[in-house]
Amino acid sequence: MNTAHKWRFFRSGGFDQVRLETGADVESLGTLDPKLWAALSCPTSNLEFDDKTLEFIDTDHDGHIRVPEIIAAVEWVSSVLKNPGDLTSGSEALQLSAIDDSTPEGAALLASARQILLNIGKKDEEVITVEDTADLNRIFASTRFNGDGIIPATAASDAETRAVIEDMMKCVGSVQDRSGLPGVSAELIEQFFTEAKAYSEWWQDAERDATSILPLGENTEAAKAAFDAVKAKIDDYFTRCKLAEFDQKAGDPLNPALSDYEALANTDLSRTTEQLATLPLAKIEAKKPLPLNEGINPAWVGAIDALKRQVVQPLLADKEQLSADEWQALCDRFTAHQAWLDTKRGATVESLGINRIRSILAGKYQDEISALLQKDQSLASASDAIDSVEKLIRYQRNLFQLLNNFVSFRDFYTAQNKAVFQAGSLYLDGRNCDFCLRVDDIEKHSSMAGLSGIYLAYCECQRRGGSEKMNIAAAFTNGDADNLMVGRNGIFYDRRGQDWDATIVKIVEHPISVRQAFWYPYKRIGKMIGEQIEKVASAREKSVQDQAAAGIADISQKAEAGKPPAAAPFDVGKFAGIFAAIGLAIGAIGTAIASVVTGFLGLAWWQMPLTVLGLILVISGPSVLIAFLKLRKRNLAPLLDGNGWAINTRAIINIPFGISLTQMATLPAGAQRSLTDPYAEKKRPWKFYLFVLLLLGSIAYLFHSGYFNQGTVDTLKKHFLSDKAEIGTEEANTAQEIPAASSAEGAADDQKTEADKPPQPAAKEGVENESVASPEPVSTVVPAPKPVSVPASH
Q1: With contact defined as beta carbons under 8 Å apart, do 296 and 320 qualify?
Q2: In sequence order, what DSSP letters do the residues of 589-651 get, joined into one string?
Q3: Residue 790's pLDDT is what?
Q4: 685-723: per-residue pLDDT in tens?
């Protein structure tokens, strides 16, 4: 390996990424410092990559691909290819001439590749593909031996050996070989012949004492089966008869009761009826022998007939009935046979019978089948190389792509190919989001992905008309978030072009674009105003409803008491205050607008656009600046880390790159568009708006021309403030009118009485002077309910 390799890097995503372009770059990958790799580990799931290739690379089968495994794969493929640069082509087919046969491993690979092509009928081909190695059944269909250590029946050249292999599979089972046929392995062969020898030896033990163990010779097994079928029932019969002999009163109860027969009267009976089988074998009587022809329970007629033919007649001659002593003699004849059965060996091959077993053992078929097995195993190295051939083909096709998504993120940042972690495209809200990740656990992934600073919409996807489901995390990196909300539906297209129904189930909010940040303050103010108006309207509506309900309740109570409801007095002060407040507000607004317009018109022409831009900058500037800084810091690493990756760098998604990941809807070039909408909103009252603008312009002109000066404005302000003070006093006194009405009337009468009396001389000089200065009588009582204000004191 060349340790002095000169590496080249490119800058993208905010970090330096190694440029892998030549075979030398790939071959020297082991010398590259792992700190310069984009990733240190990636999962073998949720990737748009060949699963079989990942399985070959993941040598420890832990579900993750790590740096040492990547280096090992690169070193192996470089050792068996003449030119490692072939990896950069990503070719689907492997040229046989590209395999380096100068090494033992390379020579075995080449021989195995040619054997595969020969077996599938492509003897003259010089290229091999994954499809050629995928169907093992097809590869080994025409071969007797394939090196897997399994011998099917077809591997034998003669019919007798094939029959023995088939008998073996019936007894000890089978395993499937590479060609897909059932066969026997070395373990099954050993098991069968061991069992066969044990079974033969077990029979030899019986043959040494045939008189006791095999009383009926070869028919003993069948006779024993017939004997065992009725032994328990015959034992029951003779036991009942002995009990009836012991006590005559037991005879009737031991036979079926009449109620038992009555229960059977309404059922369809046959010899297989279960209730019949539970009844005694024959009628119970003291010292009565068992009849073998007549008077037998119908359910047991067949079993008794088999006992008579296979056991009684061969051992006791032809009998019409069987006594208790004769039955005991038959039981004794099978005692030795039962003891022999209890020591049975080789039961696995018993179904073939002793004669077939001895025929197989005598024919030396074990040696013949073992020879076939050895011949098959001699091809193991060549056959095992088939997996290596497939691995080499897949590495040539896929390994370079994985390197550009692991060592560097070239596919993601150059837009030449989609990255292996990009699952497809989500179409939603007039946008196409190309950056979508497959996610297993939404909650777990979102807890980590929130650190990325990327606006994410988690969606549940389901195939139409199917049960397939998956979750994705879609990154929105362009546009705005006004119409993005949980519950919205879209369509997700995976990398194979299949469409899925997608529904947003969770959103992780972050800035999407600078444009969104620019309009955000205005939208927020508008939203706030709308919410406040809605609150005020709701409160006012509730107040009106409460007042109406209270009035209706009050009217109902007075109607029930027989009194007509009194009309509410007209509150002059209240309405006067309202009108005055409205006037004051309008005046203040008009003054403010006039001041703004006057100040604006007082600027030089070149200052006016600068003022507008400054106002926009004050409102939108902070939001745009914050969003700009956040958008420049969007990080890919937390998204992939949440999926099980180990990212080794801070991979940035800046504003221009983010715009490329989410495409907005645009009209095609040269498209025609009609602006006539039959359902458009009605035209606004532009004449009224024009009148308001002219009025405001006139006021501004008057100010600008000097017709309105600062003194006029101060006078108007004092006038409005005076009116406001009067309104406040009126409202305060109005609140005291009703409870003080009676006292006011009394005070008026007292005032009239005092006025009719002659004036009294002053007691002190100070009082005289005061009366001279104020000729009117001193009194704080007003003659009318409405109080009098004294503005002259100001």
Answers
A1: no
A2: HHHHHHHHHHHHHTS-TTHHHHHHHHHHHHHHHHHHHHHHHHHTT-BSHHHHHTTT-EE-S--
A3: 42
A4: 666 666 677 677 666 666 666 655 666 656 656 655 665
Mutual orientation of helices 159-172 and 354-362 as an angle, nearest 10°? 130
pTM of the model: 0.59
| Strand pairing category for 175-176 and 469-476 | unpaired
φ/ψ of 476, rounded to 5, equals: -100, 115
Rounded CA separation 592/699 (Å): 12
Contact between 325 and 242 under an 8 Å Cβ cutoff? The reply is: no
pLDDT tens, 71-88?
Answer: 999 999 999 999 999 999
E-strand spans in 477-597? 489-494, 499-508
pLDDT of residue 767: 34
566, exposed or middle or buried, with CB in 10 Å at 0-12, 13-18, 19+?
exposed
Q: How is 91-160 classified by DSSP, letter by letter? A: -SEEEGGGB-TTSHHHHHHHHHHHHHHHHTT-TT-SEEEHHHHH-HHHHSTT-S--SSSEEEGGG-SSHH
Which three-class secondary structure string do you get for 188-203? HHHHHHHHHHHHHHHH
* DSSP code at position 177: -
Which pLDDT value is given to residue 649? 93
pLDDT tens, residue by residue, 645-669: 999 999 999 888 999 999 999 889 8
Cα dist from 299 to 61, 258, 278, whole Å:
63, 19, 9
Higher pLDDT, 757 or 458: 458
Is residue 512 within 8 A of residue 526, CB to CB? The reply is no
Q: Which helix (H) or strand (E) holds 321?
A: strand 321-322
Whether the per-residue pLDDT at 754 is higher than 80: the answer is no
755 pLDDT tier (thresholds 50, 70, 90): very low
CB < 8 Å & 24+ apart, contacts of 343-347: 343/202, 343/205, 344/202, 345/198, 345/199, 345/201, 345/202, 346/195, 346/196, 346/197, 346/198, 346/199, 346/200, 346/201, 346/202, 347/195, 347/199
Residue 23: Cβ within 10 Å count: 17
Please state, in angstroms and rounded to a whole number, the distance separating the CA atoms of residues 160 and 154.
Answer: 12
Query: How many residues in total does the chain contain?
Result: 794
Residue 490 · residue 472 · CB < 8 Å: no
CB 1 within 8 A of CB 370: no
pLDDT for res 189? 93
Question: What CA–CA distance (Å, rounded) separates 403 from 49?
Answer: 12
Q: To which residue do tokens 């001193």 refer?
A: 778
Contacts 24+ apart (CB under 8 A), 163-167: 164/360, 164/363, 164/365, 164/369, 165/369, 167/352, 167/356, 167/360
DSSP state of 256: P
The DSSP bridge partners found for residue 432 are 427, 663
Q: Is 232 exposed, middle or buried (0-12, 13-18, 19+ CB in 10 A)?
A: exposed
CA dist., res. 408 & res. 18, Å (int): 6
pLDDT of residue 30: 93
| Sign of the CA dihedral with 220 first, then 226, 231, and 232 last | positive
pLDDT at 281: 87
Q: How many CB atoms lie within 10 A of CB 363?
A: 13
Q: Alpha-carbon distance 421 to 257, whole Å?
A: 82
How many whole angstroms separate alpha carbon 391 and alpha carbon 394? 5
Burial 87-126 (b: 16+ CB within 10 A, else e): bbeeeebbebebbbbeeeebebbbbbbbbbbebbeeeebe
- Beta-carbon contacts of 157 under 8 Å, excluding residues fewer than 6 positions away, are none
Q: In what order do the strands lie in the sheet with 39-43?
A: 64-66, 39-43, 646-647
